[in-house]
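Researcher: Next entry in the queue.
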Amino acid sequence: MRKHIEIIGCPIDLGAGRRGVDMGPSAIRIADLEQRLEQLGHQVVDFGDLDVMIPETQQVGQGRLRYKEPILKTCDQLRKEVERSLGEGRMPLVLGGDHSLAIGSVAGSTNFYARQGEALGLIWFDAHGDANTSDTTPSGNIHGMSLAVSLGLGDQDLVNLGGRAPKVQPRNTVLIGVRDLDPGERDILKRSGCTVYTMRDLDERGMRDVVDEAIRLASDGTAAVHLSLDMDVVDPEDAPGTGTPVWGGITYREAHLAMEMFNDRATIAAIDVVEVNPVLDSQNMTGVLASELVQGVLGKRIL
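Model: Structure for this entry, 303 residues:
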């Protein structure tokens, strides 16, 4: 189906522990993203990049929420743009940047559908849980808290961004590809009520069954699904350019299968593609793969 897609760059790296992810939007664009989507028949507009603050000009802040204030400001800007884009009949495609941006993008999607009396599902691909709070985080990096925030857990300023909390219901929230959890977030995820598929689940059941069930859960009683794709879900052999790589991830082929299944079976509200770090990449392998996976969600097929 032909879509009106709006690319929104969010080159934030305040939520991460390593520099370089702010260049992620450029790396994905360089991989012919816009041109490839147009070849698939979509109408594409590129908003450009949000004006994002850099660590050199900001205070880290006190406590266990590093750069909280500038992250809040950036996420609120992103929320507004995602909401606007959906309101104009477009599908926001957010290029990151670190995963803290999902606090804003999910808030924008949620607000748009909530105004119509409808709910949103969330499918989150990630090697990590992103379910820490200020009480459990070992690092203070907010990119490791963004899923918890979307579920209404953690710092109340982050949780209440956009005026609605929680952003999504646990029963409609699915995390896929997990293989590295901090002790505190492991407990949070067990109590949260959301569905978590670890790499063991993928090994035992296969990507097809897991994604099929994930789409069913996220779509049950919701109008659409927000897809948040952290490139570290892919094994570092195929996606070396991420700030927190974890061996034993999903393969190149599994990633493509999953994305194509979303095109077949899900109503996608918006997409995040995050944690592409060109400084750590090899010949833009991860940026190119990110572009290819987006194309898969939006209709690219072998035949």
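Model: The chain has a mean pLDDT of 97.
Researcher: Noted, moving on.
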